[in-house]
């Protein structure tokens, strides 16, 4: 078999939701772009193993790049969702105070949300914070939808195209693939998730490090007559948003995730202790889960930056490599904003862009079952 030879103005490395959104935006701004995904399909990594919640940014810290891009995404998303036929449960979220000190946190969240321009309400009866704009989607369908629409607008996608080497020259970059293929390009965008630091090192850039922060989930079927019609968010701590309980598009209920820092980027197992850790918290928030056995379990690995978050910009070692790394906890929600931000950097590197065209509509995406099933099957995580 002869190896692939590809030429493109821009090569996007990594086909999670961030890479797919970037390809989507570039294709709609008239840029000749190719997406290189090392795996056999898109969204098998963090983008296929998350909570699927489209956050509004109500609790994000004002002034941070992450917040700016979540809010920018929220403005871009309705037009895209409609064109892609992406299923979304507009469920809204509730944070109910469990202890006295939670009331102060909720008050601060209310003010934060208002400063960010996100609609929230305080419920008089119990002091709960209501966030009507929070919604749940299928993150795999979302990623595949962006990719299909990008292709319809002229973007290209190469699977099993793992980048293992990068050479720099006066004309741009030559990327070497694991199977012997070669990609020549002016600019490469490094959206390789957990492996973004490995990709950056290919040009001698060791300016950041990515480690896996594991999040485990359990999927439940509720007994007849019990339903959950909104997302239950715990009152957050500084480190994590905590264990949520949320409805899925197919009528199940998911509880999770945990937040466990690790070293092994290939460890997608669910720890034996995770069930107790999650259920102890989840049943307090949603007592209908008490005594139920989960029907499935899965784990996701957040691409966490060591002491950094949202590292976006040209690599210090190679101007033509744009790092889009350490998109740890909100990449599904922020992906369209990230993509627009990255596309805005391209003219500065000599890549012409046009005004963004309306999203190319596509039919319903066949995502091969809901994401939790795809993930649970692939990694055979034990309950
Ligand atoms: C437990 C958990 C819960 C979360 N909940 C939410 C949530 O509710 N809402 C939200 O907005 N966000 C959530 N997130 C965060 C979100 O999932 C991530 O921010 C987002 O998926 C990151 O996307 P990415 O494209 O950067 O990385 P990834 O999805 O990890 O994609 C990177 C891709 O790069 C590929 N790749 C790696 N190396 C190479 C190479 N050398 N060559 C080619 N390809 C390569 C990989 O195969 C992979 O497909 C959660 C994450 C986790 C794990």
UniProtKB/TrEMBL annotation:
Residues 10-345 form the FAD dependent oxidoreductase domain. It comes from the Bacteria. Pfam families: DAO (PF01266). SUPFAM superfamilies: FAD-linked reductases, C-terminal domain (SSF54373), FAD/NAD(P)-binding domain (SSF51905). InterPro entries: FAD-dep_OxRdtase (IPR006076), FAD/NAD-bd_sf (IPR036188), G3P_Oxidase/Oxidoreductase (IPR052745). PANTHER family: GLYCEROL 3-PHOSPHATE OXIDASE, GLYCEROL-3-PHOSPHATE DEHYDROGENASE. This is FAD-dependent oxidoreductase. It comes from Arthrobacter burdickii.
């Amino acid at each position: 078999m002869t190896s692939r030879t590809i030429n493109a103005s821009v090569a996007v490395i990594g086909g999670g939701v961030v890479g797919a959104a970037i390809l989507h935006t570039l294709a709609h701004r008239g840029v000749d772009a190719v997406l290189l995904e090392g795996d056999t399909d898109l969204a098998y990594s963090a983008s296929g193993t998350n909570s699927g919640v489209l956050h509004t940014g109500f609790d994000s810290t004002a002034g941070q790049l992450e917040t700016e891009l979540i809010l920018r995404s929220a403005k871009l998303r309705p037009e895209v969702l409609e064109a892609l036929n992406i299923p979304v449960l507009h469920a809204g979220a509730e944070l109910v105070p469990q202890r006295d000190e939670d009331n102060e946190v909720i008050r601060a969240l209310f003010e934060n949300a208002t400063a960010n321009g996100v609609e929230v309400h305080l419920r008089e009866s119990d002091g709960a914070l209501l966030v009507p704009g929070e919604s749940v989607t299928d993150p795999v369908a979302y990623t595949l939808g962006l990719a299909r629409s990008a292709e319809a607008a002229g973007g290209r996608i190469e699977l099993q195209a793992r980048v293992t080497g990068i050479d720099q020259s006066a004309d741009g970059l030559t990327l070497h693939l694991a199977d012997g293929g070669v990609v020549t390009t002016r600019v490469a965008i490094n959206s390789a998730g957990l492996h973004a630091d490995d990709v950056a090192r290919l040009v001698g850039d060791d300016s950041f490090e990515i480690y896996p922060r594991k999040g485990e989930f359990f999927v439940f079927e509720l007994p007849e007559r019990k339903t959950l019609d909104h997302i239950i968010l715990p009152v957050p701590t500084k480190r994590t948003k905590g264990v949520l309980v949320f409805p899925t598009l197919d009528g199940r209920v998911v509880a999770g995730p945990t937040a466990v820092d690790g070293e092994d980027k290939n460890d997608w197992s669910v720890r034996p202790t995770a069930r107790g850790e999650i259920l102890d918290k989840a049943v307090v928030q949603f007592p209908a889960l008490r005594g139920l056995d989960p029907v499935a379990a899965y784990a996701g690995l957040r691409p966490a930056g060591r002491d950094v978050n949202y590292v976006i910009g040209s690599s210090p070692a190679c101007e033509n490599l744009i790092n889009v790394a350490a998109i740890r906890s909100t990449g599904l929600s922020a992906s369209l904003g990230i993509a627009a931000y990255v596309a805005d950097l391209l003219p500065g590197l000599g890549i012409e862009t046009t005004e963004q065209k309306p999203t190319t509509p596509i039919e319903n995406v066949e995502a091969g079952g809901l994401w939790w099933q795809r993930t649970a099957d692939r990694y055979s995580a034990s309950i």
